[in-house]
Amino acid sequence: MPGTPGARTGLASILTGDPATGWRTTINAVISWLEGNAMLTSSGLLSARPTSTSGNPGIAGRRYYATDTGVEYRDTGTSWVALGVELVTALPASPYNGQIVDYLADATNGVVWRLRYRSASASAYKWEFVGGAPLRAYIAAQETVAWNAGYTNPATVGPTVTVPVAGDYDIAHSTGVANGTGGYLFPSFSVGATAATDADRADAGPGGNFTPTRVAIRKTGIPSGTALTMRYKADIVNGSVHDRAIAAIPVRVG
Fold this sequence. Notes:
The chain is mainly beta. It folds into 3 domains: 1-38, no CATH class; 41-132, no CATH class; 135-253, Jelly Rolls (Sandwich). 7% of the residues lie in helices and 43% in strands. The chain has 1 helix and 17 strands. Strands 5, 6, 7, 8, 9, 10, 12, 14, 15 and 17 form a 10-stranded mixed sheet that branches. Strands 1-2-3-4 form a 4-stranded mixed sheet, with no helix packed on it. β6 (100-106) and β7 (111-117) form a beta hairpin. The longest helix is centred in the N-terminal third of the chain and has 18 residues, at 20-37. The termini are far apart. The relative contact order is 0.14.
């Protein structure tokens, strides 16, 4: 008869003289235990990770550690799922509900957005912003804005930020203003080819020095790669602007 079950697996050893049925029973128990408990692990570059797709099934339950990204993945049998928060430069093509990623929004300035996928979102953009810094741009120089020219540019255009992925964004802007006597100056911003409007402006005037600010102006459905550029309108007399800043932070993207 089989020997004493092992403390870790519960599988009994086969003793000398055990019948063939004992061998069969134990081997089948080993197979069953391995199917239910064994974990296949491997590691290497992310690009070398074994294939696991619906058309080329993997092995459900195995793990793979990507040495170049520092993220471990679990094989579902038809796909790989990150077990940690993955740093990405493009949103996953086949996300799952509750998935969290760190999206590199601006590599130059180190802006990373933490996003969570919520499939039940009523919006077409289902990656909701959890945290991170806004996109920012700033111009210090003081420059003239000509009056009676509508929303226009001083000598240095901007500042400008460009959204890296389509979605809904909250925009904030501020501008230091020096107006001539009786003059007004209105900072606003354009959204791609859509001209700046009074609806998004901040007011400064008449006359004197001001720092008009507008915050949390929500713009929905901004396409990927759209530039948000500050524009300025002077009324009655020329004005000047300085210390101009614009910031954009996502609400949800996709």
